[in-house]
Design a protein that fits this description.
The chain has 480 residues and is an alpha+beta fold. The chain has one domain (2-478): Cytochrome P450 (Cytochrome p450, Orthogonal Bundle). It is built from 18 helices and 12 strands. The chain has helices at residues 2-25, 47-51, 61-70, 89-97, 108-114, 121-141, 143-166, 173-190, 201-212, 223-247, 256-263, 272-303, 305-321, 334-337, 341-354, 385-389, 411-417, 431-448; strands at residues 73-78, 81-86, 103-105, 171-172, 360-364, 368-370, 373-375, 380-383, 449-456, 461-462, 466-467, 472-478. The strands form 4 sheets. The chain has a 5-stranded mixed sheet, sandwiched between helices. Strand 1 and strand 2 (81-86) form a beta hairpin. Helix 8 packs across helix 9 (201-212). The structure holds protoporphyrin IX containing FE and 2-acetamido-2-deoxy-beta-D-glucopyranose (3 copies).
């Protein structure tokens, strides 16, 4: 009697679980056809496969395999969220232009909670906040600022850093570049002076980044606990800076924070909390991708001496074109900066291969039709720009580091198949700064220094973010 009851219960549970799994795998959707693809295991979806590290610069196997199996648009599930991944250039181009209409930034919900913007006020509130953030960043990192102020500052910064590197037996490229870039952008954002600070802020940010990938349990001793503590220290530091600036305001804005503090008095949503969170986020946005990209450049250049030769020739030609009055000038002029075709090709080719992130996340605000499939409202969309930039149909032998290929690429092809900085209204506000920083870095590097690889650089892969495994170590030397 008892055993047959038990059997019934087991059978019932089995049936329920089977129904649950089937439902999970075949999400109900009345309006149109869902893209092909598997939703993976209940609750975790296909998350584990996405996080499984690859050991090559090639497209992450998660995406590559699914394109082969399902085509350019497919569905999957990360951590319980239904996701559609799109790898097609026409669709992705279109999605970028739909920002605010049928797709929106994926993390908007979290953001809305942070700033207590709910329901009604969200769309209008967010338009204004986004415009504000974008314009303040562009004001300090955009073309005008580069032209009038930043080129010589970056130059001095890079030269001093490289000079310091020559005094060391070997430097670990990723950490050293990250701290160089961080110190430079933090100076523009909050007036941070790394030489006068006894705590290295860049190291705190790097350890936060590593800790964010850890398991989120907040007990003393765990990596996550440390992240929360370090984040608190940084936000406190930003608060202190804000208070200092409020006490002794400067007539002219020296850095981005000066402007934000001034606007706290006039713009209702620019509160102290808002500024703290925004600066914290902006510091993150501005150093990780650019330092990963420059680190990859070191690896690629080390493997391709012919590219280094041509870079050196281009930059030495610029120096020799200067007349007597400009000789020994310790910067690049705007005109010189604008006359480096090969350097631009090297930068594009590095950005094409880097794909620091596999793609950008959006959320469907309503049902979206693509290629005869429907992406249901509420689903997450990953615009997989990495797949476009490594597509053999657009880029011959896509894994080859070949800066010369850019001579033959048509501008209409580039605009739809090369999106390292995203597209549409949300396109990276630091794109011009990044290009200028890389250019000046290459310029100083090839005209004044040389380097040899000491070790590492053979374990580059994707986790799914660009990752350098055991790192790369180099020795930097003065040129003569
Ligand atoms: C190699 C370097 C960089 C890469 C590959 C990169 C990439 C991107 C991408 C793809 C986006 C769009 C995100 C989305 O649409 O979901 C973005 C946005 C943004 N980036 Fe960058 N970025 C880089 C460097 C920088 C730097 C140096 C700064 C700051 C000085 C910066 C500031 C921003 C800001 C403020 C946004 C938001 C723009 C908006 O929402 O209107 N980025 N970045
Ligand atoms: C199906 O689509 C129509 C219009 O496209 C819409 O009015 C309706 O609410 C949708 N139904 C569901 C179940 O989403
Ligand atoms: C204001 O800016 C000037 C540079 O224009 C600087 O020399 C001065 O120290 C700043 N004053 C304060 C109070 O920060
Ligand atoms: C590099 O890429 C940009 C698009 O981000 C494009 O406008 C530019 O023409 C490219 N440069 C070269 C040299 O191909």
């Amino acid at each position: 009697m008892v055993s047959s009851l038990l059997l019934c219960v087991v059978a019932l549970i089995t049936i329920l679980v089977t129904i649950w799994i089937r439902k999970w795998r075949n999400p109900k959707f009345a309006n149109g056809t869902l893209p092909p693809g598997s939703m993976g295991l209940p609750l975790i979806g296909e998350t584990l496969e996405l996080l499984f590290p690859s050991h090559s610069l090639d497209l992450h196997p998660f995406i590559k395999k699914r394109i082969q199996k399902y085509g350019p648009v497919f569905k999957t599930n990360f951590a319980g969220r239904p996701v559609v991944i799109t790898t097609d250039s026409e669709i992705n181009h279109h999605l970028f232009l739909q920002e605010g209409r049928s797709v929106e930034m994926w993390y908007l919900d979290t953001f809305a909670k942070l700033f207590n913007m709910d329901g009604e006020s969200k769309p209008t509130g967010f338009g204004a906040v986004h415009r504000y953030v974008r314009s303040i960043v562009l004001n300090h990192f955009g073309t005008e600022s580069l032209k009038n102020k930043l080129l010589p500052e970056i130059y001095t910064f890079v030269d001093l850093t490289l000079q310091k590197w020559t005094n060391q037996d070997s430097i670990s490229v990723k950490e050293s570049v990250a701290s160089m870039v961080f110190d430079c952008t933090a100076k523009q954002m909050i007036g941070y002076d790394s030489t006068k600070s006894n705590e290295k802020l860049s190291e705190k940010f790097t350890s936060i980044l590593q800790g964010l990938m850890s398991f989120p349990i907040n007990i003393p001793g765990t990596a996550f606990h440390r992240v929360l503590q370090e984040s608190k220290k940084i936000t406190n530091m930003i608060r202190e800076k804000i208070n200092e600036k409020q006490k002794i305001p400067n007539k002219t804005d020296q850095d981005l924070l000066d402007q934000a503090v001034r606007e706290m008095r006039t713009e209702a949503f620019v509160t102290e909390d808002f500024v703290v969170h925004f600066i914290f986020g902006a510091l993150f946005a501005s150093f990780e991708s650019i330092s990963s990209t420059i680190t990859l450049a070191f690896k690629l250049l080390s493997d391709h001496p012919r590219v280094v030769e041509e870079l050196r020739a281009e930059h030495e030609a610029i120096l020799s074109k200067r007349d007597k009055s400009e000789e020994g000038s310790s910067s690049l002029s705007w005109d010189e900066y604008k006359s480096m075709p090969f350097t631009l090709q090297v930068i594009n080719e590095t950005l094409r291969l880097a794909n620091v992130s596999p793609g950008l996340l959006r959320r469907a605000m309503k049902d979206i039709q693509v290629n005869g499939y429907t992406i249901p409202a509420g689903w997450t969309i990953m615009v997989a720009t990495s797949a476009q930039q490594l597509n053999p149909k657009t880029y011959d032998d896509p894994m080859a580091f070949n800066p010369w290929r850019w001579k033959d690429l048509d501008s209409s092809v580039i605009s739809k198949n090369f999106m390292p900085f995203g597209g549409g209204m949300r396109q990276c506000a630091g794109a011009d700064f990044t290009r200028a920083f890389m250019t000046i870095f290459f310029h100083v590097l090839v005209t004044k220094y040389s380097w040899v690889k000491v070790k590492g650089g053979n374990k580059i892969g994707r986790t799914p973010f660009l990752d350098f495994g055991d790192g790369i170590n180099i020795k930097v030397l003065n040129k003569e």
